[in-house]
């Protein structure tokens, strides 16, 4: 299929009103590469600095000395940038539109209200002895208090670590320990799709785990009024701690390189790692990308459907939009509840202009046919965005034609937790669209494709995606383990940031992300390490060995396929499959639920004992004809056995 068949050119009308048309993009992009210092010095002015930076870029990707600093002599406060500076001009403007899980529940929070509530919480945190450099774990529903908690931490210089509300108690415990958090902020329960999730119970369970003693307090937002246990002295109600506080709280002056947050994400090996993001560069980059990629214009209503537990929620629900004085919609529920028309109905109800969502949500709706959009007109929409995983051209076209009524540009945005903000994406007024392609690099981004030896490949080709130079939004380190940061991202190809993604570049210089080239799965846009799931499985007494791979899944993008070798004397059964499935759900969280479990009397291994995942992936994908060379296996017969008993028929 030729890429040329499906090009959606930029319309003149959009180019005229956009922040960047073709010429502007070209000129600014060239400037950003030729002279990053002056480019980013200028861009930093979009923020309000207590001390404006004079030293702009001081970065090294060399594997002997990975050191990344932006604006390093500048001082600022992120909360003041997201709140205080808007008070005069837009104090009464809605900052957050909150849409509840129940379609009858919604509220508007103005910039002034957000400012006051943030200050009150900041004062309450100080009363608990939390201050600059302390870490706070947030395990919250999608309610305004989640944004307030993030901003309150930023205001006093505390570092937040948001843990996705779908994770298990063990995952919470691991992250409380990893970040050394003295406080957890949570809610009694969260509500999604009509179901209640016992957040506070999960925190209680997490804090019984060894090593979590550092956590002295649990602050609880009353969301549902559901039944919870209470530990006197440790637990406190959010409203009781906060209501009594002053609505003024001075914003701490932070160095541009002071940490703003930690966010855990999965890698190909070991436990999830806490990426460290800092203050000045991160906010500059989040704000700038939000403005240009979504072409955010004054007065627009903007909706990103992500959860604040993921980086997309950090950069494009909270920090980017609020830094730009935008109105950002925060949705507590799921697009399929109470009916599949909900997404469009929320767009109509709040007159949403910009809708940023994930391919998996689009595919789930698409599976129900065009009729799911009949309950809404979506006339307010002007722009669509996609993130989290490759979007297949069919889903792209459906998103564009049905949800967007065929008249809204669709920006497919490629980026990662590590990158802090969008890296490769079209600009609506500048880039012709090709369904399935994230198109062109953002300002300051130098992508390249390399072969497995790190040789740069030129022209139209396919390879491993690397980034050749630093940009302000990138993570600076892994919390408490800089060596692991260097190992993970800078040691594969010296002097380059390795993304872990494969990518194709076409003859027009457009980038097409092909998916992970490492052992990371992307299930419904959620990142998961196969190693994490495997280590959960082998902790079960019945399991001798386990290998986890991804396989193509119509809705989720990738599904989780598990091969399990049982211990001697253990009989395989459907009950045991169910038990193992529940085990993983309980250990990691529902997002890690296995799709397929296959009993594997043996796993294909090399003579040195390494599992050949390439073969397991092929079998899971039912591509058994193209297994390639199996002669290097210690016991090639296990492959025939696995093919014969494929579970995913
Ligand atoms: C994948 C989410 C193709 C990719 C912001 C990346 C994508 C990983 C896209 C990061 C996209 C994200 N097209 N693939 N538009 N966006 N990915 O850290 O494999 O949760 O490495 O960040 O998701 O996932 P993460």
UniProtKB/TrEMBL annotation:
Domain AMP-dependent synthetase/ligase: 84-467
Acetylation in keyword set: yes
Ranges of residues in domain Acetyl-coenzyme A synthetase N-terminal: 25-82
Cofactors required: Mg(2+)
Alphabetized InterPro entries for the sequence: Ac_CoA_lig, ACAS_N, AMP-bd_C, AMP-bd_C_sf, AMP-binding_CS, AMP-dep_synth/lig_dom, ANL_N_sf
E.C. code: 6.2.1.1
Catalysis: reaction(s): acetate + ATP + CoA = acetyl-CoA + AMP + diphosphate
Annotated residues for binding of Mg(2+): 538, 540, 543
Example GO molecular function: acetate-CoA ligase activity
Transmembrane parts of this sequence: none
Positions with a binding annotation for CoA: 192-195, 312, 524, 585
Keywords: Acetylation, ATP-binding, Ligase, Magnesium, Metal-binding, Nucleotide-binding
One Pfam family, short name: AMP-binding_C
UniProt PTM comment: Acetylated. Deacetylation by the SIR2-homolog deacetylase activates the enzyme.
Residue positions, PTM N6-acetyllysine: 610
Domain of life where this protein originates: Bacteria
Domain AMP-binding enzyme C-terminal: 532-610
List of residues binding ATP: 388-390, 412-417, 501, 516, 527
Protein family: Belongs to the ATP-dependent AMP-binding enzyme family.
Role played: Catalyzes the conversion of acetate into acetyl-CoA (AcCoA), an essential intermediate at the junction of anabolic and catabolic pathways. AcsA undergoes a two-step reaction. In the first half reaction, AcsA combines acetate with ATP to form acetyl-adenylate (AcAMP) intermediate. In the second half reaction, it can then transfer the acetyl group from AcAMP to the sulfhydryl group of CoA, forming the product AcCoA.
NCBIfam families: Ac_CoA_lig_AcsA, PRK00174.1
Cited PANTHER family: ACETYL-COENZYME A SYNTHETASE (PTHR24095)
Cited HAMAP family: Ac_CoA_synth
Protein name listed in UniProt: Acetyl-coenzyme A synthetase
Annotated source species: Halomonas dongshanensis
Lineage of origin: Bacteria, Pseudomonadati, Pseudomonadota, Gammaproteobacteria, Oceanospirillales
